[in-house]
Amino acid sequence: MSSEAAQLETRSWYKRNEIAVTPWLFLIPGILFFSVYVIIPIFQSFWISFHQWDGLGEKVWVGTANYERLLGGDRKFETSFWNNVRWLVLYLLAIPAGLFIALFLNQTVTGIRIYKSLFFFPFVLSQVVVGLVFSWFYLPNDGLFDVIVGWVGIDISGGVLGNPNTATYGIIVAGLWPQTAYCMILYLTGLNAVDPEQVEAARLDGAKGWKMLWYVILPQLKPATFIAFVVTIIGALRSFDFIAVMTNGGPFGSTRVLSFYMFEESLSEFGFRMGYGAAIAVVLFFLMLGFICYFLYSMWRDEQEAR
Amino acid sequence: MHSIFKAPLAALAVASLGASAAFAGSHSSLSGELRIISDMSNPAPRAVMEGLAAEFDEMHPNLTVELEIVDREAWKTQIRNALSANPPDVVNWYAANRMLPYVNAGLFMDVSELWNESEFEALASTKGAMTIDGKQWGVPYTYYQWGVYYRKDIFEELGLTEPSTWDEEVANCQAILDSGRKCYTIGTKFLWTAGGWFDYVNSRTNGYDFHIALARGEIEWTDPRVRQTFDNWRQLIDMGAFIDDHQTFSWQEALPFIVEGEATAYLMGNFAVAAMRDGGLDDTKLDFYQFPVINPDVDFAEDAPTDTFHIASGATNVEAAKEFLRFVTSPDVQTRINGGDALGQLPVNAGASVSDDKFIQQGFDMLSNNAGGGIMQFFDRDFPAEMASVGMEGLQEFMVFPDNLDDILARLEDARQRIYQ
User: Fold this and answer.
1) Rounded distance, CA A181 to CA A186, Å?
2) Cα–Cα distance, A251 to B394 (Å, whole number)
3) Does the pLDDT of residue B354 top 70, yes or no?
4) pLDDT for position B148
5) Cβ–Cβ gap B396/A251 under 8 Å
6) Would the CA dihedral through B128, B132, B135, B139 be positive or negative?
7) Cβ contact B295:B204 at 8 Å
8) What's the rounded Cα separation, in Å, for the pair B61 and B346?
9) C-alpha distance from B383 to closest chain A C-alpha (Å)
10) Which of A165, A274, B27, B118 counts the highest number of beta carbons within 10 A?
11) Please, are residues B88 and B102 in contact by the beta-carbon 8 Å criterion?
12) Residue B393 and residue A250: Cβ atoms within 8 Å?
């Protein structure tokens, strides 16, 4: 007994605490980079948002003035916020669309791999390219879209992207194209994991069509749906590239979203109002935080259930 | 240790530069590396800039010129990073108000001593635009006129002549509309083109001093005189003078309208001429007139933006950078780079000869003899950045929905009170 205690004493500090210390050693690089590139900048943004700063000179403390202006009737902010809501709601259409394409492609036909990759293709393209192609598609007079709706007698004045009432929807549709492909690939992988025995059993019980989908297939696809939901919400909130390429926030700022407005205020040609940009970033951060908390909560809940 | 030698030798290089740039080569003492970042990314300017860099490199055997050309639009936001982290020696930028943030932040080097050299007396006309706080912060290398470029052949076909008053302008436009064409092409997707129209209509309606006072925030946007400007502009908008859907086009995308004769005129800077010539409009089809008089009581004011070179305050090869600035502003180089086959713009050095290109000649004549009101640098350079962006967005909206004017002006006034406080 005593000899054992003596042996404990002689072991090095690391040996004695190996179990407790080793995970932290492995975590150190991650923690370090995550704090330097994510956590610290978040607090820096909070700090900057209380200042007036052009990014080069001295920061001037202005207290909550940026927030008062932002939330006290800044029309650009209101437009951006409601556009963000539109993006969030309509972007979710990518999930059912992706699911149905996946169901459609989940069969064994000669050359199905080619069809699958063709459907997946838009997601491989750069968002900038997709935006550019769609802006040609939407061109007034010469654009294919304008020609097609012209056949049924609809004329959108200014073209889809030039009309403040339609521009945001036009961009969202462009965004849905690659996002649908993304959701589709998530569901295709999910469908591979569907248990054929359960399907067989359901079939014996007389389930088919919608009932089969709703009660047998979809519950098994829940993990895929969750991931598709997460990436789509995040995609909608960072819908920056499409807007920058297709309308540059115009016409007259009607297609701005918060991330674009933040960029415009802080980093664009006429921007460099870092304080105000940071204030927008903080608001956007709290909006995203709401979703992130929900995701974390549901992941935690699933883990609890699994135990 | 090298600084002891460098000063007298550099002085020698200056002295030898004298009249002919080619001479300096044989006596060059410059060595090391000269890093230039240029925004001259359009085809013709790019060739000019590459030519300049190669020539300067050849003149100074011990010096390596490293040139990096950045997209012109992208440079407007990249310049900050470029100047603050690992700064190059020489960069491109713009004169007047646009220099202010970099001067205030100490990122541009004070080059007043260059301007005290006798060779720089020939640049006196642009000294004001390069001066902030009594010091000069860079050198100009080119400037260009704005005005109305129009289809001469269509004017002749319709029996129209260049208008000199607003009434003639409107009457011409009516005739053009009656012939089934639009009067003006414009692409306002990136907003600034609408700023050109405002500069002209406002300065012709209320004069240069009023325009600059508005830019300085001394006049309310809801002032009746500002409304008068918009009323005049609206006359054209209500006639349907501008091409439809212009908010979806860039200025380049608006070019086909004039090239194909669907619109007859384009209020633009002289840089558009090269593109229109490429599109097949030769001098028999394309001509230029000065924006007409609206209010006979005010003198002509013209947009003539000046493009510049600056030395970064973090430059490592200052002597070579200064020598490069002397080189680009020398009469000989100025004549060459602004020639019709190069930039096709106006030289800044009084000793340089103006290209015999029709448009450059007309522009030079206009700016020398017929711009008594003053020279504007352009909406987005005269107005502070934030006011310019809010303003141009309002101008674009006005051009599409003129009925929203009250709302737009109220918004601009709101912005003015906040921005200039």
Assistant:
1) 9
2) 10
3) yes
4) 95
5) yes
6) negative
7) yes
8) 31
9) 11
10) A274
11) no
12) yes
Mean pLDDT confidence for B364-376: 85
For residue range A163-194, list pLDDT tens digits in order. 889 999 999 999 999 999 999 999 999 998 88
Say yes or no: A9 contacts chain B, CB-CB below 8 A: no
Is there a contact between A256 and A242 (Cβ–Cβ < 8 Å)?
no
Q: Are strands B90-94 and B306-311 parallel, antiparallel or unpaired?
A: antiparallel
B357 falls within a domain: no
Question: Does A57 touch chain B if contact means CB atoms closer than 8 Å?
Answer: yes
B293 and B406 in a single domain? The answer is: yes
DSSP per-residue string spanning B121-180:
GGGHHHHGGGEETTEE--EEEEE--EEEEEEHHHHHHTT-----BHHHHHHHHHHHHHTT
Domain span at A16: 2-48
Q: Give the CATH number for residue B154.
A: 3.40.190.10
What single string gives the DSSP state of each residue in A192-239?
Answer: HTS-HHHHHHHHHTT--HHHIIIIIIHHHTHHHHHHHHHHHHHHHHTT
Same domain, B155 and B265: yes
Confidence of residue A146 (pLDDT cuts 50, 70, 90): confident
Question: Is the Cβ of A59 closer than 8 Å to some Cβ of chain B?
Answer: no
Quote the distance between the C-alpha of residue A250 and its chain's center. Answer: 22
Picking from B248, B252, B269, the residue whose alpha carbon sits closest to that of residue B189 is B248
**Residues B397, A253: Cα–Cα separation, whole Å:** 9
Contact A159 B400 (CB under 8 A): no
Instruction: Give CA–CA dist B322/A117, Å, rounded.
Output: 57
Residue from B243, B245, B408 to probe the interface with A (highest A Cβ count within 10 Å): B245
- Residue B48 and residue B132 in one domain: yes
- The CA distance from B390 to B405, in Å, is 14
A63 lies in some domain: no
Buried b (16+ CB within 10 A) or exposed e, B383-400: bbbbbbbbbbbbbbbbbb
With CA atoms as reference, the chain A residue closest to B381 would be: A270
CA dihedral B381, B387, B393, B397 (to 10 degrees): -110
Is residue A88 predicted with pLDDT exceeding 90? yes
Instruction: Looking at the structure, tell me whether residues A215 and A272 fall in a common domain.
Output: yes
Query: A141 to chain B: which residues are within 8 Å by CB?
Result: 245
Flag whether A58 is in a domain.
no
Percent of chain B topping pLDDT 70? 93
- Tell me how many domains chain B contains: 2
Shared-domain flag, residues B169 and B261: yes
ipTM score of complex = 0.79
Q: How confident is the model at residue B121 (pLDDT cuts 50, 70, 90)?
A: confident
Residue A245 touches chain B, beta carbons under 8 Å: no
Do both B399 and B342 map to the same domain? Answer: no
Structural domain ending residue among the three candidates B294, B328, B352: B352
Residue A59 resides in a domain: no
